[in-house]
Design brief:
Elements lengths: L1 H20 L2 E5 L3 H11 L20 H4 L4 H4 L4 E3 L3 H7 L3 H10 L6 H4 L5 H15 L4 H24 L9 E3 L1 H31 L1
Antiparallel strand pairs: 1-2, 1-3
Helix pairs in contact: 1-8, 1-10, 5-6, 8-9, 8-10, 9-10
């Protein structure tokens, strides 16, 4: 019964990760002036001024409406989900996606290609379910699950905690989707450790 409960908790966390993958991960949170500077830099070399740029000094939340038809050119998109990142990185259609990817990809070379690694998030969540099922009889599977989930959560949370988001050309705020994903992986790691510990205690009592 104990193992079924622990397995169920892993499944719930995996569902939360998959759900979080389609939720907003990051959102533009800079002042209008800072967004304009980021937008201006993204269109340097076009040889012309972006129309309606003054409209960006209005409410930030209505940027997309005020620059209709210009957003794709200047790279203004208010929020992105995990699912959006590779597509937007490869089409250069969102400075928010570029900024978010920059937090986790230290080497800018081939960053657009490397951004596809984000699709591993929901895939590895399913892998964790498979490892948890195997863990009903094999502790090694539980160790692998704890290492994978712990590595993702620790690495991601460390990057977010140590990066000064306000210093970016387009400042961003991290949204619930990414926090949900990383904390769900952290919970899977904790569940794995507890599961292993309980199995060891049970095995010791049986001797």
């Amino acid at each position: 019964m104990r193992k079924v409960i622990l397995l169920s908790l892993v499944v719930i966390c995996a569902i939360a990760i998959i759900h979080g993958f389609f939720m907003p991960w990051a959102k533009a949170s800079a002042s209008a002036g800072k967004i304009v500077r980021g937008v201006s830099s993204s269109v340097t070399g076009t040889g012309g001024k972006v129309p309606l740029i003054g409209g960006l000094f209005g409410k930030v939340e209505k940027i997309s409406e005020k620059v209709t038809g210009v957003a794709d050119v200047v790279g203004v998109k208010m929020s992105v989900s995990g699912y959006d990142i590779p597509k937007m990185m490869n089409t250069k259609s969102s400075q928010v996606a570029v900024a978010l990817a920059g937090i986790f990809i230290s080497d800018a070379k081939d960053a657009d290609t490397k951004s596809y690694a984000v699709y591993l998030m929901p895939i590895l969540a399913l892998v964790c379910i498979g490892l948890a099922l195997m863990g009903m009889k094999n502790k090694i599977a539980l160790i692998i699950m704890a290492v994978i989930s712990g590595g993702i959560s620790a690495g991601g949370l460390f990057k977010l905690m140590t990066t000064n988001l306000s210093n970016m050309a387009v400042a961003i705020s991290i949204e619930n989707g990414l926090w949900q994903t990383l904390y769900a992986y952290l919970l899977i790691c904790i569940i794995g450790i507890i599961w292993i510990a309980l199995d060891l205690i049970e095995a010791k009592k049986a001797k």
